[in-house]
Design a protein that fits this description.
Elements: H1 2-11, H2 15-26, H3 45-55, H4 67-77, H5 84-94, H6 98-107, E1 119-124, H7 127-131, H8 136-147, E2 160-165, E3 177-179, E4 182-185, H9 189-200, E5 208-209
Parallel strand pairs: 1-2, 4-5
Antiparallel strand pairs: 1-3, 3-4
Length: 241
């Protein structure tokens, strides 16, 4: 029994090593040719006005609270990712220590710390999407095989980046993906390939449900709430109406 215990102990992966790897990937910045403080970044004149409008919503002593919306504005301007120069500029605009901005950007997963493609494809694989319709597994297979890259990778032409994510809040229209700011729902392998082809060709792909449904309405006639409701006063005696 002791020999078995020793063998299991040797094979077991320590929690500490896993945590260090995660921290190294998500929290640590190392200068590179495409991501270093020497690369200039500044909000455009248009986005500077947007930033001023956002900051004006907060009391002057609390303008640092605008860090999340300003990071979002800056990330969109920077082709969908948050570089060290983006974070430094937001810190300068809000007059706050850069480290405080780094803490926010490294905590929230919506801030991409690495460059992404023109079309950032976030594929939901949480339970409703895994079970709904044809299932998210088939959508993942269709996307990866069609684009020739795996999850977490970018196509060689820099047009698409794929990422597996948790729930995006469109469970009634599962399976679905989010591409940049748009939702594509009620997907089948065929419909998601058409969406990708349209985007690759520079066309505007149909957003929302790719089925015949409107929004999250049922695909067919109503089975409930299809009668005129009774007058709520009818339940009271005449003298109380």
């Amino acid at each position: 029994m002791q020999n078995v215990a020793r063998a299991v102990a040797r094979q077991a992966r320590g929690f500490a090593s896993t945590a260090r790897k995660g921290s190294d990937a998500l929290m640590v910045h190392r200068n590179s040719s495409y991501n270093n403080p020497e690369i200039p970044f500044k909000l455009s004149a248009e986005n500077q006005k947007v930033a001023e409008t956002i900051i004006a919503k907060y009391p002057p002593q609390y303008k640092k609270a605008a860090v999340i919306p300003l990071l979002e504005v800056a990330q969109k301007q920077n082709k969908g990712w948050t570089s060290i120069s983006v974070m430094n500029h937001v810190a300068e605009v809000l007059e706050m220590p850069p480290m405080r901005v780094y803490e926010v950007a490294s905590f929230y997963t919506m801030f991409n710390r690495e460059p992404v493609g023109d079309h950032f494809v976030q594929i939901c694989t949480t339970t409703p999407c895994m079970l709904g319709g044809c299932g998210s597994d088939k959508i993942v297979d269709a996307i990866t095989s069609h684009l020739g890259v795996g999850l977490g990778e970018t196509t060689p032409d820099k047009k698409f980046t794929l990422l597996e994510v948790e729930c995006l809040g469109a469970c009634s229209n599962a399976p679905m993906v989010q591409i940049n700011d748009e939702f594509y729902e009620d997907l089948t392998p065929e419909s998601i390939v058409k969406v990708l082809d349209d985007l690759a060709a520079g066309k505007k792909a149909k957003t929302g449900p790719q089925s015949k449904r409107k929004g999250s309405e049922p695909d067919g006639p109503l089975t409930a709430l299809n009668n005129i409701p009774k007058d709520p006063k009818a339940q009271f005696a005449a003298e109380w109406r």
